[in-house]
Amino acid sequence: MKRTLAVTGATCALALAVTACGGGGSDSASSANQELKGQTVTVAGVWTGTEQANFKKVLAAFSAATGARTEFVSTGDNVSTVIDSKVQGGDAPDVVMVPQVGVLQQFAAKNYLVPLSATAQASVTSNYSAAWKNYGSVGGKLYGLYYKASDKSTVWYSPTALDTAGVTAPKTFKDLLGAAKTVSDSGTPAFAVAGQDGWPLTDWFENVYLSQAGPDNYDKLAQHKIPWTDPTVVKALTTLGTVFGDDTLLAGGRKGALQTDLATSVQKVFGDKPAAGMTYEGDFVSGIVSGDLHKTVGTDAKFFPFPSVDGGPAPVVSGGDAAVVLKAGKNQKAGMKLVEYLASPEAATIWAKLGGFLSPNKGVAATSYPDDTTRAMGKSLVDAGDAVRFDMSDQAPAAFGGTQGTGEWKILQDFLRDPSNPKATAATLESAAAKAYQG
């Protein structure tokens, strides 16, 4: 593969043994094996199922190249609460894969984090757009390495369901509603909505809001520079309510949606007994399709970009998981070596080949992705450069945007349950946001 990473002795030592490095790759790998042999790196993250299994293959490659032993600890969705508890209890992992900018900032404010090494920073400068460096930085210091990213502006659909209904991929939200009604009228509910998890509902809102209200308002709302009672928020909720408020469009109606997690929402569309024609979420849906359901992305499952709303540009919302090193970890040195490895194109390529993964690393060749669909999304993510808009809820304090059963997740679940009063929902969102940002 083409490498744009400036190769240094440290970087070479952390590359896979099969990767050629100037001056002798095998000697460097052997040296690294001696350096980390017998050491253990503990990594915590939200990933479960196929995602966790694929990341463990990356960790296995790191172990093979360095001699270090790795352990993965699943945190569940409440990363902030779990890591707080582990730090206070003296059982902190060495590395955390943080899925929210707000949580990264919170950890930095609590003095939990070690700034990334010069080697990791050089890799970020060489291989990442400035936007990703900015999202990983607090107070001018780089703490987070964005290993995994996502395109959260994708609507996945069953070609069979849309063909049966005689509809094509819509370009506007109005056309999406029309297509959804036609699909539902054909006998299959249009959408499987993952309401049980909470966070997919924030992604629905963000795509509508970014397109309808524009990027400037998006940035202001993400930073709480305008209140959630702003008319632009009420308008976006009203628009979203046209989907959430129509039980005929939802598999199982609103009640069923609130009992459906992400994996189940994908299964309802692409499983052996389809119960819906479409599901909305990010590119990582492809990993569930290919890994859990053993279906073919690009044939059995296709996507179209989240459509434009009220004449605005089509939204491009992204997210990602940043590797950070904890001061309270028992092995900072080996933890930092892992982050340096994750910054390399080699480490990203391992998961890229497995599917269900996108990397913001420019050094990852498009041919690393397993299908044309994912290649197109990977190219789009890198080409977006500094125009990437990070998931809004992930930028918020965890108490508002990143905790199950409270804040935005819970309020939008309540909105899905009853979307009849967008103004009241906006007021509730503002009350929760003001408390979280003030805290």
Describe this structure as you would to a colleague:
This protein has 439 residues and is of the alpha/beta class. The chain has two domains: 9-151 and 319-387, Periplasmic binding protein-like II (D-Maltodextrin-Binding Protein, domain 2, 3-Layer(aba) Sandwich); 156-315 and 405-438, D-Maltodextrin-Binding Protein, domain 2, CATH 3.40.190.10. It is 50% helix and 12% strand. It is built from 22 helices and twelve strands. It has helices at residues 9-14, 25-36, 49-66, 79-88, 101-109, 118-127, 130-135, 159-165, 173-185, 199-213, 215-222, 231-244, 253-257, 262-270, 285-292, 332-342, 345-354, 372-384, 392-395, 398-401, 407-417, 422-438, and strands at 40-45, 69-74, 95-98, 113-114, 137-138, 141-142, 145-151, 154-157, 278-280, 302-305, 317-326, 389-390. The strands form three sheets. Strands 1, 2, 3, 4, 7, 11 and 12 form a seven-stranded mixed sheet that branches. Strands 9-8-10 form a three-stranded antiparallel sheet. Strands 5-6 form a two-stranded antiparallel ribbon. Strand 1 (40-45), helix 3 and strand 2 (69-74) form a beta-alpha-beta unit. The longest helix has 18 residues, at 49-66. The radius of gyration is 22 Å and the shape is globular. It comes from Actinacidiphila alni. Keywords: Signal, Transport.
